[in-house]
Amino acid sequence: MCTRHVSTVRGVNGVMRQFIIAALARSPYRVVEVNARPAEISLADEVLICNALMPVVPVQRYGEQQWSARELYQFLAPLCESSD
Question: Which domain of life, per UniProt (predicted)?
């Protein structure tokens, strides 16, 4: 179940990160910035990474944790591709 709540781990305030946060601000999703530890990240429904070279990529596995949800990725991918 998606609660439409997006947490972002503080990181480099790059162009793609800014673009994604702005796009989410105009969407049904709510962005909350957090300082997450690995144990907290493992509780996420979906994990994505982004940068200017590969706009948005779903994380499939981190340690023993695996993710298969793609709702947020499917929402963001077309937006990120059109931002080139």
Answer: Bacteria
Structure tokens at 82: 């059109």
* Domain CATH for 49: 3.20.10.10
SS (H, E, C) 6-20: EEEECCCCCHHHHHH
Cβ neighbours of residue 32 closer than 8 Å, sequence gap 6 or more? 5, 6, 7, 8
d(CA 28, CA 22): 12
Q: Which has the closest alpha carbon to 24: 5, 42, 10? A: 5
Instruction: Mark residue 4 as left, alpha or beta (left: phi above 0; alpha: psi -120 to 50; beta: remaining).
Output: left
Range of the domain at 16: 2-82
Distance between CA atoms of 61 and 50, rounded to whole angstroms? 16
The structural domain count of the chain equals 1
